[in-house]
Amino acid sequence: MRNGIIAYGAYLPYWLLARSTITEALGIPAGKGGRTVASYDEDTTTMAVEAAREAITGMPYVILPNEIILSTTAPAYMDKTNAAALHDALSLPRSVSAFDMSGSVRSSTAAMRYATYAPVPVLVVLSDMRNGLPGSVDEREGGDAAVAFLFGSGPDVIAEPLAYASVTSEFLERWKLPGEKSSHQWEERFGEHKYVPLAIEAMGAAMKEAGVTASEIDHLIVTGTNTRAVKAVQRSGEFAAEVVAEDLTDIVGYSGSAHQGLVLANVLDTSEPGAVILAVSIADGAEATIFRVREHIVEYRQRRSNKNVAACLDPHCHAELPYMKFLTWRNYLQHEQPRRPEPTPPAPPPAARHATWKFGFTASRCNVCGTRLMPPGRVCIRCGAVDQMTGERLADVEGIVANFTIDRLTFTPNPPMVAAIVDFDGGGRFRCELTDVDPNTVAIGDRVEMTFRKITTSQSIHNYFWKARPIREEVR
Hints:
With about 475 residues, the chain is of the alpha+beta class. Helix content is about 25%, strand content about 30%.
């Protein structure tokens, strides 16, 4: 029996780059709409954590994955498993395996396919950041996003796979050498010529295996690395125009490894029980998967409330990013650094000793007087009890801004830095940085939530920890 989708969650960064700003800066046509942009303190690992939290946090029943797979074309580390940081940030048991499937967009479909055949529940997290030289197609049409799917079996399945088909063909249409910041792409008409027959072949094979016809497809999802090929398959005569799913490229851009999952999540947000979904990914060949939505999705959506892709796209959740700041964050625009000492990278031994705090944001609660300690400690600061503590994960606990300061001297890629003292619901106070925030609107009493971010990168070491961000009341 194949695993089906039990839960899912999506994450889109706070920042948006309007394509019109590229036109204004470079004087070239860049089209309409915009693209999502990961902040200076985000990478594919931090975005993966946010998507995974949306998928598995706050569920009324406990279904933990036995394996985690992180797929991306832009891993934060090479020669190191990035999914291990994701594992610890979710505070999962040490027995849960963590693996990377990276290198190409097609790796993401491999991760999804593996999860359907695995003998245990699997959490698949697809996360990507798309880069390109200033003025390039990848810059204006790319996007940053992450999405997570929990696969398992039983009555909690909300979408079951009916069929899968794959077609592979080797040709040089898009490539990037190790260490290069931007991909190369051959003329798009060549890609369209090669990809469209492969996609149609894969779609036909999947429908034959599932025993369905084109007229029985309720939602057609087509994503891929070649825009012309995607649009040609979407216009194929077998399918009615109304079944073609919105591909979100006008709002998000093409988010590589994450994109098909993001569109699938958006379709699942509104699909009715019994709906048949055909998802096609075009990258170094073609993959086609057919899902049938099950009745349990109605109850699942009621539990999730407004946690859906539409909420992620809400304008109140985003701010427009100036083009020059975008170039700076992507390291295409170099400028003089502040004349201050370089940040000190974290030493691996103490980071490993305090991993439950650093990655899992786990505080301690005194069993004698109930005081919550942040960071965790052995001795209670109120009653003096020693080694009478219970760990408490606070990554999913909200709080309020008790006080804050706007620091215009400390170096940050997004000045000024906003530091706040946060009082957590249920007790505990902690000083941390605010991110995804307008310094002109911060106020004492603002509600905040925690988010996993990159504090600094120094000497090739990413220093991950938790920051606070404002809760946008408009989409609660």
